[in-house]
Specification:
Length: 236
């Protein structure tokens, strides 16, 4: 009788154990060396944990002699949460003083499935049908989904003032050498439907699938390349 009660108690206890949590993204800072056409620069990224999820900041600025061509920056921030449905954008802000991309400030309201805010000083209101990402949160959505083995073939991306479908493909693995070290990287390519521009992220599993090389091609020609120089986990 005692053994039977003990077995029942252990069974009930086992049922109350929560399922193992999904692997989480590691807060970190990273620095990349960047080449955009004839301009050389630096990309600084930061991912921090917040009470509601994560805050990411990506800043591109010219370096060296390229500062004679431009002293502007591209400063983009994204706040997002992670739940059973994956990464969900909360707020996105972009200020570009290098190119001609319009400034943007958007909030994603998942209770009404709407994204609202301003793009280039104009009011924007978009209806969301399913999960959508901004240009920064889509990277962390891919990293999170690769970590958990749930990467999809298609994602929805907020693009300037509309929603676009982004197709994802695996282009295989290769060994890459960067300023941060030598890695075996998985190539993940994403491309908007109808666009001649394709971006390939060379992601490393031991860095939570952080891309150590980012390449963007347009009409088959390399237009942008970022190579990881340093990676520093943030201990909280």
């Amino acid at each position: 009788m005692i053994l039977a009660r003990l077995f029942i108690a252990m069974f009930v206890w086992a049922l109350t154990i929560p399922a193992l949590a999904e692997p989480l993204l590691t807060p970190h800072t990273a620095v990349y060396k960047v080449k955009i056409s004839v301009v050389s620069g630096e990309l600084n990224t930061e991912l921090r944990k917040t009470a509601d999820g994560y805050f990411a900041n990506h800043v591109v600025r010219a370096t060296g002699l390229s500062r004679l061509l431009t002293r502007g920056t591209i400063d983009v921030t994204s706040e997002f949460s992670i739940d059973a449905g994956g990464v969900k954008a909360i707020r996105y802000k972009a200020i570009d003083t290098i190119g001609d991309n319009p400034d943007a400030d958007l909030e994603f309201d998942w209770s009404t499935n709407e994204a609202s805010g301003t793009v280039g000083g104009e009011n924007v209101l978009l209806k969301l049908e399913g999960v959508a990402h901004d240009s920064v949160s889509i990277q962390y959505a891919l990293m999170h989904d690769l970590l958990n083995g749930t990467a999809a073939a298609r994602y929805t991306l907020f693009d300037v003032d509309e929603l676009s479908i982004v197709n994802i493909s695996n282009v295989g693995s290769k060994t890459v050498t960067t300023g941060a070290g030598k890695f075996t990287a998985l190539g993940i390519r994403h491309q908007k439907e109808g666009s001649s521009r394709a971006t390939t992220l060379w992601c490393v599993e031991e860095l939570d699938f952080l891309p150590v090389i980012i390449e963007q091609h347009k009409d088959g020609k390399l237009r942008f390349r970022a190579t990881l120089v340093t990676y520093t986990p943030i201990r909280e």
